[in-house]
Amino acid sequence: MSAREWIGKDFYRELGVSSDASQDEIKKAYRKLARENHPDANPGNTEAETKFKAVSEAYGVLSDTAKRKEYDEARRLFGSGGPGGFGFPGGGGTGTGGFDINDLFGQSAAGGGGFGGLGDMLGNLFGRRGGGGATAARGQRGADVETDVRIDFAEAVKGATLPLRLSSPATCGTCGGNGARPGTRPRTCPTCAGSGLVSRSQGAFAFSEPCRDCRGRGTLIDDPCPECAGEGISTRTRTLTVRIPAGVDDNQRIRLAGQGEPGRGGASAGDLYVRVHVNPHPVFGRSGNDLTITMPVEFSELVLGTTLTVPTLESKVSVKVPAGTASGRVLRVRGKGIAKRDGTQGDLLVTLQVVIPGKLDGKAKAALESYAEAVAKHDPRPEITALLRDRGA
């Protein structure tokens, strides 16, 4: 996004957060506003659609650390936002307009000289990579878009390919993105000759400002497209195929480059971020790339030892429990966890948990009483017994 596109925009205000908000606060505010103003939830509501586009654009800048740094730097240099703000001519900033904005953006003002060096120094600050002139400055990268999908636990472990139905801003299908009614084309603005800027002198200084006739676009549309009203972008429902990689974590984002909101003025489209939500499994859990399972066992199985048949996501395995194993012990089964990106797999962690019966029949109760008598001399808690003895208990 160019500095010119930042003029008069307060992205923090759009999201309702402070300028020192954390990334989590920005993300939370965006998701709330996006849900409230999503076109699917507000069919036919142009005000909600406009707000949805605005918060998406704001999030596209503030969610990216590098872009946010550039944006904050621009705010510090030119003052806070607001209509026409950042101190440029015609704005509400503190500047007087006594400098050449063409020079600032690396362009040549009438008479040359001026702040050309400053323009070179700040070229990267505003996303310029050299060349391109006024047309490149007008280009605005499309905003990033975020959506959510929910998958089953097994799909998260093994990976999946899902169809994603998405309603979001996209290049207008009627006009192809140029904003003009089919059969017509935008014409070059006669006021600025297509540059998007008009220059004027004030005393010893020359400065430029966005052309008011074409609003800095460089072209005029006499017969706007009926679908997008001349914007070149309309809200469309499209279906994408999303590949969910094996081992994806709950709340992880997957980036689809170039599938976000289309750019303006020939700039590239934004990215689509798919946030994955994983449904919990009734039996298995997860710890990193290890699968976890709690295996109920009888007291006698731990005392005498046994071999348990334990399920995995795809089949089953046999696990040997040594005699005298304590309740709560974790047994590790190698290579039965989640596949990692390097081709290796995590493990299956089996936690043994004694099940205490709520009721016993006569035979079982008698056997348990006999066992209690047999081990009566064995103190299972010697440290506590000693402490109680010292206190006269």
Report on this model:
This protein is α+β, with helices and mostly antiparallel strands. The chain has three domains: 1-97, DnaJ domain (Helix Hairpins), CATH 1.10.287.110; 139-186 and 221-280, Sandwich (HSP40/DNAj peptide-binding domain), CATH 2.60.260; 284-390, Urease metallochaperone UreE, N-terminal domain (HSP40/DNAj peptide-binding domain, Sandwich), CATH 2.60.260. 27% of the residues lie in helices and 24% in strands. It has twelve helices and 15 strands. The protein has helices at residues 3-6, 11-15, 23-37, 46-62, 65-78, 101-104, 116-121, 133-138, 153-158, 299-304, 362-374, 382-390, and strands at 145-151, 160-171, 187-188, 197-202, 205-210, 219-220, 233-244, 253-256, 272-278, 284-287, 290-297, 306-311, 316-321, 330-333, 348-354. The strands form six sheets. The chain has a four-stranded mixed beta sheet. Strand 4 and strand 5 (205-210) form a beta hairpin. Helix 3 packs antiparallel against helix 4 (46-62). The chain is elongated and about 105 Å long.
Query: Overall mean pLDDT score?
Result: 78
CATH architecture of the largest domain: Sandwich
CATH homologous superfamily title of the largest domain: Urease metallochaperone UreE, N-terminal domain
First CA to last CA: what distance?
77 Å
Low-confidence stretches: 80-137
Write the H/E string, N to C.
HHHHHHHHEHEEEEEEEEEEHEEEEHH
Biggest sheet descriptor: 4 strands, mixed
Specify the CATH class of the largest domain. Mainly Beta
The geometry reads as elongated
Number of helices: 12
Q: Give the strand content.
A: 15-25%
Query: What structural category do the secondary elements indicate?
Result: alpha+beta
- Indicate the radius of gyration in whole angstroms: 33 Å
Count structural domains: 3
Strand segment count: 15
Spatial order of strands in the largest sheet: 10-11-15-14
CATH topology of the largest domain: HSP40/DNAj peptide-binding domain
Domain J: 10-75
Zinc finger (CR-type): 159-237
GO molecular function, one term: unfolded protein binding
Keywords: Chaperone, Cytoplasm, DNA replication, Metal-binding, Repeat, Stress response, Zinc, Zinc-finger
